[in-house]
Design brief:
flat, mainly alpha
Length: 138
């Protein structure tokens, strides 16, 4: 086995020849190799939408989607919190997750600390004068 992990080294002439050969098979600028692009929806998604839009047999104009929504609403009225949450998520969207960041005295102090004080802290590990790290027992 050679130093390059089993691959043979190519000469500069071979590299130039391979690059020219590769360029011959490239798409011209501005021309897509996939003009139709990726399909907008997958097959399963399309099939589910079609089924949900179909009328439930034995009903007058009630689609599977409407029947499903009514079923969720009925369960929610009976006290099923998962059904109520599902309905709310579908209608109003899922609530955004918020994260509370607690600004401590130490963080506020560092925001107003001079460059020299920060360098001193980095070199010595000692906090700026008059600041506690919040870990001391009260």
């Amino acid at each position: 086995m050679n130093k390059s992990g089993g691959r043979t080294r190519r000469t500069p002439d071979q590299v130039v020849r391979l690059v020219k050969l590769g360029k011959r098979y490239q798409w011209p600028k501005g021309v897509s190799g996939n003009p139709s692009g990726r399909p907008a929806t997958q097959t399963l998604v399309k099939a589910c939408r079609e089924v949900l839009n179909q009328e439930v047999p034995g009903t007058e104009g009630l689609t599977f989607a409407e029947a499903n929504a009514r079923g969720l609403a009925d369960k929610a009225l009976e006290g099923d919190m998962r059904a109520a949450a599902e309905l709310a998520d579908r209608v109003e969207g899922r609530p955004t997750q918020s994260r509370d960041l607690q600004v401590t005295e130490l963080a506020r102090r560092f925001e107003s600390t001079s460059r020299d004080e920060l360098i001193h802290y980095a070199e010595t590990g000692q906090l700026p004068q008059g600041v506690s790290n919040g870990l001391e027992e009260a």
